[in-house]
Amino acid sequence: YYPSYGGDIFLDDAERWTIFDGGPTDLYVVVAHEIGHSIGLDHSNDEHALMYAYSGVASDLTTDDINGVQRLYGANPDAGGAAPQTPPQPPEPENVPNSPVEVVEGSIDNNVFYQVWTIDVSAGETVTFKMEALDGDLDPYLAILTPDSQTVLAEDDDSLGNRNALITYTFPDTGTYIVVATRYLTNDGDSAGSYRLTAERSQTSAGQPPQAPPPTQPPAAPSTASIAVANQSGVTVCYVYISPNDETTWGSDWLAPDETLENGFFIRWDGVATGIYDVRVEDCQGGHVETYYVEFNSDTTIYVYVDHLEVAAGVP
User: What percent of the chain stands above pLDDT 90?
Assistant: First the structure.
């Protein structure tokens, strides 16, 4: 799991926050849970853990939460006791050569659940990354990080289809960027197998962004598509956020005031401008699932499950 927007935490001032009552909007519990995400923890499958997907279950760290943090950062040397066993380390970052199309391969399992690659790019250069499973039951997950590894620029689970990952990103500055190839849920996941990572650079010269049309040529009107959200999560959805990928906030809820999306139903919006979007869906108890860098170039449906979102072509 990689925290987006540098691990920032946003609290919704529309909530009726409480304190130390163990409820779904207990400020202490919610902030502690979100701090867990900020330092790199994903949701836990342990329903007693603070990092369980639904708030109000735990009000303090459990053994599962502590083990998750120590797996990322190691045990506190001043706390005494034995440190958890350190899993085998992934290989050192390797460079994706500076060619128009370059392909590398690797493998993910329970011992090495992510691999790190680097790529040298010029300012304004656009690169399309594809991570495709070759065998096993691997569910690829791909992330692009800043050269200092501190900020996630883009991440994707299954936009390529068949659970494979796809990211097209235009780099703002010249540098050596980090590409992380992993699996859905990273260390908490259980899929494994080999993969192929493809980096395809745009046909424009490196460092030269595509040229704008002549001033006398009016810009083409943006095309539109229909977007549907289908609820298959087993719970009621209360909030849907579909935000352009270059925005830093989720924006407004796409559901009408007092509108909800019941399990087994879908809602559809027509005339949505095509582009690249991030999607967040929340249930009425504060649980949420997100996916990033979804390309809405044609009619698209987002299927909502209890622990993830899936993107499919076409609308109901």
Answer: 33
